[in-house]
Design goal:
The protein is mostly helical. It has four helices and no strands. The chain starts with a helix and ends in a 7-residue tail after the last helix.
């Protein structure tokens, strides 16, 4: 196996980790966190609350770096369009994530504790979740496109 293939695979693994973490959050975190907002947000708050920020701040730059490296290494191959389309799609998704998803999530999750359910916050959480699932399926489509590049020559 040559170095180009190893980098291509490493980028694919990193991209898959992003998707896996998103699937995990949608199955295990967000249904509970948004169940009875703001009381249910305690799982994300305080000194011992779940803090996924470190993970996301690490995996996105690593994935971008690997995808850019793969694009450079694949520029003169038939894999170029698979890598380029995935990279462009991922950058667009990251832009949307940092302009909508992160600020909205922080706005919701930093709400002070209360015993009563806030219907408007619960609705915002539901909207956020629905849009985030659309984002997740878009990432899955990009990953499929990326992995289809493995069926092409790297020469």
């Amino acid at each position: 196996m040559n170095f180009k293939n190893l980098i291509y695979i490493a980028a694919g693994v990193s991209f898959s980790i992003v998707i896996g973490a998103a699937v995990y959050e949608h199955m295990a975190v967000w249904p509970r966190a948004f169940k009875a907002v703001p009381a249910s947000l305690t799982m994300l708050q305080g000194e011992y609350g779940l803090n996924a920020e470190v993970f996301w701040k690490t995996i996105h730059p690593v994935t971008l770096l690997l995808l850019i490296t793969t694009l450079v290494m694949s520029w003169k191959t038939s894999r170029k369009m698979n890598v380029l389309a995935t990279l462009i799609g991922y950058v667009i998704i990251l832009g949307i994530t940092f302009t909508y998803f992160v600020p909205e999530l922080l706005s919701i999750t930093q709400t002070a504790y209360a015993d009563t359910v806030d219907a408007s916050l619960t609705k915002r959480g539901g909207t956020w979740t629905t849009l985030s699932i659309v984002r997740l399926f878009t990432l899955i489509g990009l990953a499929i496109n990326y992995f289809l590049g493995l069926t092409k020559s790297n020469d």
